[in-house]
Predict the structure.
Amino acid sequence: AYAAAVYMLNARTLMGMAEAVEADPKTRNRIRFAVEQWVAAAAPSNFLAFNAEAQKKAIETKGESIAKGVKNLVHDIQQGHVSMTDESLFEVGKNVATTEGAVVFECELFQLIEYKPLTAKVYEKPFLLVPPCINKFYILDLQPENSVIRYAVAQGHRTFVVSWRNPDASLGHKTWDNYIEDAVIKAIKVTQEITGADTINALGFCVGGTMLSTALAVLAARGEKPVTSATLLTTLLDFTDTGILDVFIDESFVKFREAELGKGGLMKGGDLASTFSFLRPNDLVWNYVVGNYLKGETPPPFDLLYWNSDSTNLPGPYYAWYLRNTYLENNLVKPGKATVCGEKIDLRKVDIPFYIYGSREDHIVPIGGSYASTQVLPGKKRFVMGASGHIAGVINPPAKNKRSHWIRADGKLPKTAEAWIEGAQEHAGSWWTDWSDWLKGQAGKQIAAPKTYGKGKYKALMPAPGSYVKAKA
């Protein structure tokens, strides 16, 4: 109790000092973030000498919990990250990423998966999902009951997904342009060729949404409009409000990364994963340090946390371009400022309907950041806010009847998220049903579902989820 009282006094004092610093907002946020990290790490509960629960368990198990904790620590050191779930209980393709389908196209950057229809008829406009390339695609296909992909298929959409390759040294030279031209745009065109559709519907999640929107701006500059509508899930286009991640970004940091990786190399997936974990240190780091090492416990199985631990690398030039042109200089929303694939980017020319979703408690893409896309894109837009955070807010299937979402009945999109929220109405349950109704309105008439995967030169190469998703960082 004494140690806890001293800790709380010190923590309050340090946090108060951090708040009282007279500095510009960015510097103050950095000081606050650093102090929060120290406060989280220094909690008495993180040390066996001060953790009464861990001591009690050690006595009750005659030291077995400590021995198991050491074993857990050695295991985590060998694998390179703190275990958040029992990873031995999951296997991609066996009990995660199980929606039936086939790889119908493969190149060095991605595999394109087509899913088997679950309905006798499908909508004439196919549906392509572009997940973030900093993670594996199966966040959208965890279990049958919470799979965005399976839900889309069940709603009658002929569904395709980009499964990113986990880059190794041979791809360390790839750029943002490569990922836009040779991956996103290529996936759009292959989907068109397989289905025979003039236009398709598309969805981008997180940085996948940033890449999809960039690709659409490149295509618009070329006078092409292959996408009828797009859905953006927790996506930043305007990087003015980037939340806690802003503490890492300044000219010197970006120059360091450019010097280190700009000409080639890999940004290691483990480093990225650690950064994101320490944005919520108590929940995603020290909670597991205490459970795994001090108490000798095995964390319970959790599909989302298994996915969270299954990190991916990024090519250095891609990463360096992304840092400078988005987080540092915010060039994507400055018409003509960024050049991608030889084209000047102007998002104002991407004049198609957009469904834009943001999560209210998102710490990676703040609600103000996701909402800002409504002020950038010119076409007809529908904005919906969901409860919870970056992942849990998105992966919220209707059958669970959990959480809420907010919609404005008047359809107005004022300048700020705060103003939008003031006029929004809360609805119980998942936002998926609202999105499904919207997407069906963009999908055209219904036609007979295909009996086979692919078409012509695009054959079924292997069953879903393919091979790229199984490569570990």
Remarks:
- Residues 17 and 32 are 9 Å apart (CA to CA).
- The chain has a mean pLDDT of 97.
- The radius of gyration is 23 Å.
- Residues 101-257+312-470 form a domain with the Rossmann fold fold (CATH 3.40.50.1820).
